[in-house]
From TrEMBL:
Keywords: Membrane, Transmembrane, Transmembrane helix. The keyword Transmembrane helix applies. It comes from the Bacteria. This is Uncharacterized hydrophobic domain-containing protein.
Length: 317
């Protein structure tokens, strides 16, 4: 269940209440007249089955509540009520398959904004991966993958394309491009500094690295793995199973490829620069393609489920 908390201008209260009461899957409607002071209005709350939330959100936004009041949605971890059980049973579709598009847009927008923290995480991850390459340590490579925050902008691009928000796509693309370029520059400077102190060296970089050579030797497998990771990543976001994102992060070779490209550029190993760049491009493209297709399929399946449920439901009295 989800709980909606609304600040409603007094002239919209009746319309909002009617919308909620007519929504199958909504229950526990409460109203406190004049309780809101900023903005001035009435305070309303209701519990909504996850599968009924997106249409209700669209209706509330259609009434202008987003501009004139407040729409806040929180997850209800436990709800002991027969009416809650009835609401979830009566709501069309299955809550596990429901996608809250406004929630997805807000989540990916937060995760795809180019901030100092985002740049710091991506730079640290890339430097960790550089150390993993130099030491030929798969453990450090996996750790760097887990630290990298790049899936947020990738999910933002997919979501923005599906819901047709150009600003979200542009912001996410900017975070990816600027983020990786900045991280590679920082990693190049980091490698030069460690070379100066004798911790890195050209001979160390040029010696065989059997455990990490896959980073700059992309194959068709790289694209397939990126496709699978993109599917899993988007499903983890739409179903609120965020724990799966760790597995997604350590499945793709984005951060390690950027790190190896920075190292190879520092030591003028042009064949590894090209190989790493190709590996990075394959992984990014695979995730975006898979994520976009997954969201489109989810949208299509959800509309079919709702249409089937509406067709089989008894007519309103």
């Amino acid at each position: 269940m989800l709980q909606f908390r609304l600040i409603v201008p007094a002239d919209l209260t009746d319309e909002v209440a009617e919308l909620i009461t007519s929504t199958v899957g909504a229950t526990h409607l409460t109203l406190l007249k004049g309780a809101a002071l900023d903005p001035v209005g009435d305070l309303m709350t209701c519990d909504v089955a996850r599968e009924a939330a997106d249409p209700l959100l669209a209706g509330l936004r259609g009434l202008g509540l987003e501009e004139r009041g407040l729409i806040a949605v929180d997850s209800v971890d436990m709800s002991l009520s027969r009416r809650s059980d009835d609401a979830e049973r009566d709501a069309p579709g299955d809550g596990a398959d429901a996608v809250l598009w406004d929630s997805m847009a807000e989540l990916t927008e937060d995760e795809s904004t180019l901030t100092v923290t985002y740049l710091a995480f991506l730079s640290v991850a890339t430097m960790l991966a550089a150390y993993g390459v130099m030491l030929d340590s798969s453990i450090l490579i996996v750790g760097a993958m887990a630290v990298g925050p790049e899936f947020g902008p990738l999910a933002g691009i997919c979501t923005g394309l599906v819901i047709r928000r150009k600003q979200l796509v542009a912001r996410s693309a900017k975070a990816l491009v600027v983020g990786f370029l900045a991280a590679m520059l920082v990693t190049g400077a980091f490698a030069a500094l460690l070379d100066l102190f004798g911790l890195f060296s050209r001979s160390q970089f040029e010696r065989p690295h059997p455990a990490t050579q896959f980073i700059w030797q992309p194959t068709a497998d790289s694209f397939v793995v990126a496709l699978l990771a993109g599917i899993a990543g988007v499903l983890s976001l739409t179903s609120a199973k965020s724990g799966a994102l760790v597995g997604v992060a350590i499945s793709v070779t984005t951060v390690p490829a950027a790190a190896n490209a920075a190292l190879a550029l520092s030591y003028t190993a042009w064949h590894e620069v090209l190989g790493s760049a190709w590996q990075l491009a394959l992984n990014l493209a695979g995730i975006v393609v898979a994520g976009l297709v997954t969201l489109l399929v989810q949208k299509w399946v959800w509309h079919r489920q709702r249409g089937r449920a509406a067709a089989t439901s008894p007519p309103a009295p």
